[in-house]
């Protein structure tokens, strides 16, 4: 079978499916604009947040997104992604707020166990500090339920207590599209407008809407080492260990995040259409292929979410 | 090759919201008692349709054998207790359709989560554990209370496709065929008594994979399609287009820079609850009672055209009127149009009845505290918050037997009939006619918990 001939076969089905997903996402984005006083949209410059931003443009009109964009910077981001984030925010005329884990470290609210520790997990502290600082009452995030098990259980409007904690056993029932957005002082909501999208939907939509992405998502040559079945990028933050062989490989990132825990996959996919085909044929999930930090424990994401992580 | 590789165009496509629409993703829920095999069934659907990836399979495999149930029980509290606490949403696709599964918990104490999953479902698969049924001396079987309960709940919520999946028949060996016939008979008798239209009854072994993804012709005397093949052909919920136009205003967009005020300077966004809207329609605004004519309609993505029930719309009116979030735009038939209708082939839908402050409803109670008469709650109807006082508890319903009992309170996870007095009038339409106009939630004024789901009578 020649995989490169496939996309024409699912055009018709996928477009209708994408229309329904887009419509649901826009409905939720508008609900946040109407129901909350101080919402913000978490924007990392990654593919999921770029899809949300595209839907926000359709929901509100170009240049009229009614909430600021918020980025929690670990200081360990790929410059291609942060550059792209700044470029898109400027292009949209959106307000971009960046708060960094390094500032939390300077304040002493984040302490690393050792200097090389991943800062990904510490983002929740900085995020909660930003929520306090701006008194945000709703944070829109690009998490998808297909990403991992704890996420699969979360509501679209996810209530967080005054410690920013998710209570999986006490989630509010979410009936029809009657969203209970009532809050007590100090509480907030995390809202996930693309909950029902899968990785494949995201790529099909990027392809259909011609959404521009950071170059990291497409094939490029990169120095990597093989470690525990993953390709680890060789960077100043993640140098090769003794005895490891550095190789230049054709890779792309399926997900972009903190450099210290994000791995690329081997790929020659140069366009969104190529990636749609690759995603159809993938036999390893997005997180399984790329994330070092989630592998440590089955429950690691659940624990992090309970601690206020996105 | 994975199953999703050859997604083909559907045989026919009649547009979103149409009754024959099988090209939209199907949202279905699975229900049944603890240990009836729900998680195993979902695991089987995911594995056999190749929706499970290798790393996920490795995570749930012990000595090479995958424990199918572990795909869905994702929370550590669930793994500790071996039960499902909350709805898990799963996604998979076949060559012809995409699916969203709401895996609803079986425990009675988590009925609220089942109602949550059912409220947006197009279909429900009710699992019946063939090994758990009691056989009477006269050769009949008694259904388990949870089978009756879950069927009644999904029927009450108007989930249109209800499928009985009689599971674990492989465990009965040679008796399987006779057992399936008797269980089918009992299910049919129950469905008839309860007024439930059953789409199909399928014999199944989720563990072995019989009739889940692949049909097993002749097994247990059944020649029909597999569960998955059936799900591929089920329509999504029919849009409520035969009811007059109703539109809850979700968000008001202002055009600060427009100098032309003749057609108003605001777009009213929301999702059409019932009916259709197009330019030239006269609407009345609830609660103010003013009327106006629709000047422009765009869809959710700002493309002009008419918009039908279930879809997002932006509406501008021909004059400057007071409309805010929570208000409703409702079909208003003018006297002239009314007289035309007598001679028309398809009469125009009539306007809604008067708004009311007194409502009667079936309530599914979800709070840990019981519902008591006299309390005031916050109610959400469309996008409108109003205060609601529980005037009277008419009765509570034994959802195992459908019998009505006198009651002074509605217990957690129970169903009952109540009367409420509202602070402001709403356009009340029975839930049987419109899911959007006929549904409300009750929110506790102190805890802000979503305490009850109301289905208007």
From TrEMBL, chain A:
Keywords: ATP-binding, Nucleotide-binding, Nucleotidyltransferase, Transferase
Keyword Nucleotidyltransferase tagged: yes
Ranges where the Phosphoadenosine phosphosulphate reductase domain occurs: 39-263
One Pfam family cited in the UniProt record for this chain: PAPS_reduct
EC number: 2.7.7.4
Stretch list, region Disordered: 288-310
GO molecular function, one term: sulfate adenylyltransferase (ATP) activity
Family matches, as NCBIfam families: PRK05253.1, PRK12563.1
Family membership noted in the UniProt record: Belongs to the PAPS reductase family. CysD subfamily.
Protein name in UniProt: Sulfate adenylyltransferase subunit 2
Name of the gene this protein is made from: cysD
TrEMBL record, chain B:
Keyword ATP-binding found: yes
Gene3D superfamilies on file: P-loop containing nucleotide triphosphate hydrolases (3.40.50.300), Translation factors (2.40.30.10)
EC top class named in words: transferase
UniProt superkingdom: Bacteria
Annotated region (Disordered), positions in chain: 1-21
All residue ranges annotated as the Tr-type G domain in the record: 23-239
A matching Pfam family: GTP-eEF1A_C
SUPFAM superfamilies: EF-Tu/eEF-1alpha/eIF2-gamma C-terminal domain (SSF50465), P-loop containing nucleoside triphosphate hydrolases (SSF52540), Translation proteins (SSF50447)
The entry's keywords: ATP-binding, GTP-binding, Nucleotide-binding, Nucleotidyltransferase, Transferase
Keyword NAD tagged: no
EC number: 2.7.7.4
NCBIfam families, A to Z: CysN
Protein name: sulfate adenylyltransferase
């Amino acid at each position: 079978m020649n995989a490169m001939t496939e996309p024409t076969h699912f055009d018709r089905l996928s477009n209708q499916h994408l229309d329904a997903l887009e419509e649901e996402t826009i409905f939720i984005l508008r609900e946040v604009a109407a129901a909350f006083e101080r919402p913000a949209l978490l924007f990392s410059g990654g593919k999921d947040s770029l899809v949300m931003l595209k839907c926000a443009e359709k929901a509100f009109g170009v240049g009229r997104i009614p909430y600021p964009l918020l980025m929690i910077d670990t200081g360990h981001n790929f410059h291609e992604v942060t550059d792209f984030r700044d470029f898109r925010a400027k292009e949209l005329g959106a307000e971009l707020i960046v708060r960094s884990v390094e500032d939390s470290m300077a304040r002493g609210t984040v302490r690393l166990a050792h200097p090389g520790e991943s800062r990904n997990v510490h983002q929740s502290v900085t995020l909660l500090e930003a929520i306090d600082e701006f008194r945000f009452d709703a944070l829109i995030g690009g998490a998808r339920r297909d990403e991992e098990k704890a996420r699969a259980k979360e509501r679209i409007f996810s209530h967080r207590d005054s410690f920013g904690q998710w209570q999986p056993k006490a989630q509010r029932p979410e009936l029809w599209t009657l969203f209970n957005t009532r809050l007590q002082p100090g509480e907030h909501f995390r809202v996930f407008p693309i909950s029902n999208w899968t990785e494949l939907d995201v790529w099909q939509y990027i392809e259909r809407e011609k959404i521009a992405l950071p170059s990291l998502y497409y094939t490029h040559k990169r120095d990597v080492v093989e470690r525990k079945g993953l390709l680890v990028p060789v960077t100043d933050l993640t140098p090769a260990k003794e005895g490891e062989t550095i190789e230049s490989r054709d890779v792309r990132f399926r997900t972009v995040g903190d450099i210290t825990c994000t791995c690329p996959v081997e790929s020659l996919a140069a366009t969104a259409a190529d990636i749609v085909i690759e995603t159809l044929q993938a036999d390893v999930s997005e997180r399984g292929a790329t994330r070092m930090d989630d592998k440590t424990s089955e429950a690691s994401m659940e624990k992090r979410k309970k601690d206020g992580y996105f | 090759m994975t199953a999703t590789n050859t997604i083909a165009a559907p045989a026919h496509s009649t547009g979103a919201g149409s009754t024959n629409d099988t090209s939209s993703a199907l949202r279905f829920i699975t229900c049944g008692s603890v240990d009836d095999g729900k998680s195993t069934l979902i695991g089987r659907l995911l594995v056999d349709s190749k929706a499970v990836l290798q790393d996920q399979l490795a995570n749930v495999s012990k000595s090479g054998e995958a424990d199918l149930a572990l795909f869905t029980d994702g929370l550590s509290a669930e793994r500790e207790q071996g039960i499902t606490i909350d709805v898990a949403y799963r996604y998979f696709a076949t060559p012809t359709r995409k699916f969203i599964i709401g895996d609803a918990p079986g425990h009675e104490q988590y009925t609220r989560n089942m109602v949550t999953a059912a409220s947006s479902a197009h279909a429900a698969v009710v699992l019946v554990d063939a090994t758990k049924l009691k056989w009477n001396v006269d050769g009949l079987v008694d259904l388990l209370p949870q089978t009756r309960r879950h069927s009644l709940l999904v029927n009450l919520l108007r989930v249109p496709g209800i499928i009985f999946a009689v599971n674990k028949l492989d465990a009965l060996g040679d008796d399987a065929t006779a057992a399936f016939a008797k269980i089918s008979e009992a299910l049919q008798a129950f469905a008839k008594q309860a007024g439930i239209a059953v789409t199909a009854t399928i014999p199944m072994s989720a563990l072995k994979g019989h009739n889940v993804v692949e049909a097993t012709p002749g097994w247990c005397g059944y020649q029909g399609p597999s569960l998955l093949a059936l799900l591929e052909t089920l329509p999504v919920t029919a849009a409520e287009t035969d009811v007059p136009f109703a539109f809850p205003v979700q968000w008001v967009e202002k055009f600060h820079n427009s100098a032309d005020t003749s057609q108003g300077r605001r777009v009213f966004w929301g999702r059409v609850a019932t009916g259709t809207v197009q330019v030239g329609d006269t609407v009345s605004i609830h609660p103010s009672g003013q009327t106006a004519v629709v000047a422009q309609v765009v869809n959710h993505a700002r493309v002009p055209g008419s918009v039908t029930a279930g879809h997002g719309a932006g509406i501008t009116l021909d004059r400057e009127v007071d409309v805010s979030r929570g208000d409703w735009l409702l079909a208003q038939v003018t006297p002239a149009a009314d007289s035309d209708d007598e001679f028309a082939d398809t009469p125009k839908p009539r306007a809604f009845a008067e708004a009311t402050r007194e409502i009667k409803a079936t309530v599914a109670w979800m709070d840990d505290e019981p519902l008591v008469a006299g309390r005031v709650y916050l109610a959400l109807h469309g996008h409108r918050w109003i205060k609601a006082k529980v005037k009277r508890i008419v009765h509570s319903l034994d959802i195992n037997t459908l019998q009505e009992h006198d009651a002074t309170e509605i217990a957690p996870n129970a169903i009952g009939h109540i009367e409420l007095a509202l602070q402001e009038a709403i356009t009340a339409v029975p839930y049987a006619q419109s899911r959007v106009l006929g549904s409300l939630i009750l929110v506790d004024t102190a805890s802000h918990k979503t305490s009850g789901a109301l289905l208007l009578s």
